[in-house]
Write a structure and sequence with these properties.
This protein is of the alpha+beta class. It has five helices and 14 strands.
């Protein structure tokens, strides 16, 4: 199973063909405008199994789609936190995340409220977070989130695969104002530690389309890192 997550930085109706080049089984897109708009007519005609979440008052939301298989939304209480969208796809539970509001503090709270649900769930998305900003967030920090993940036997795919420390990542996922001199690692995937996986970060060509690079996660029992 190949999953791709990408914060498209708006204008997805002009960019989805670039994401299609990855040929993922499941695509998760943050900062996407309402797909019911006429600008998305071609997208809707050429893609299927589409789910879109946008809260009242927001211009952009979270889009999920697959041309390979159907998926279903899981009935988890969001406790009025945005944007957390749990689904089941190919017999795997996946929590799609875009922490537009509340950032890491909401993510920690959401996680604590769903510890049992998360035990066999892949988590992937734009966390807008790094341990380098821990001091700004009191007790609900990225380091605390990592502690919570340890409690459900989850690992960060990137950090386990590369052996790099949190806050010292050599591969950024985000470039402020698309400036390659302002790199940050703020997009993540956490997977159950017994899952076979391989994670890639999309190439710099995506900076022509967004300030984020996509995460490309392969889940396969034959893959062991």
């Amino acid at each position: 199973m190949k999953i791709v997550f990408w914060n498209c930085n708006d204008g997805f109706q002009k960019k989805y063909s670039k994401l299609d080049e990855i040929s993922a089984d499941l695509c998760i897109v943050a900062e996407c405008r309402d797909i019911n708009n006429d600008k998305f007519t071609t997208f809707r005609e050429t893609h299927k199994n589409i789910m879109y979440l946008k809260q009242d008052g927001d211009i952009k939301g979270l889009l999920i789609y697959s041309n390979k298989d159907k998926f279903t939304k899981q009935d988890w209480n969001d406790y009025n936190m945005d944007y957390y969208l749990p689904i089941c796809f190919q017999d795997k539970k996946i929590l799609c995340v875009w922490t537009k509001h509340g950032y890491i503090e909401d993510l920690c709270t959401y996680t604590q409220l769903h510890m049992n649900d998360l035990k066999d769930t892949i988590i992937i998305g734009d966390f807008n977070s790094s341990v380098i900003w821990d001091k700004k967030h009191g007790r609900r920090t990225h380091s605390f989130f990592n502690h919570l993940m340890n409690g459900v036997n989850h690992i960060s795919a990137y950090h386990t695969q590369t052996g790099e420390q949190f806050g010292k990542e050599t591969q950024p996922t985000f470039f402020l104002h698309r400036n390659e001199l302002q790199p940050y690692h703020i997009d993540y995937s956490y997977v159950p530690e017994n899952d076979g996986y391989h994670l890639e970060i999309g190439n710099r060509e995506f900076l022509d389309y967004s300030d984020h690079l996509p995460l490309i996660l392969d889940i396969n029992n034959d893959l062991k890192d």
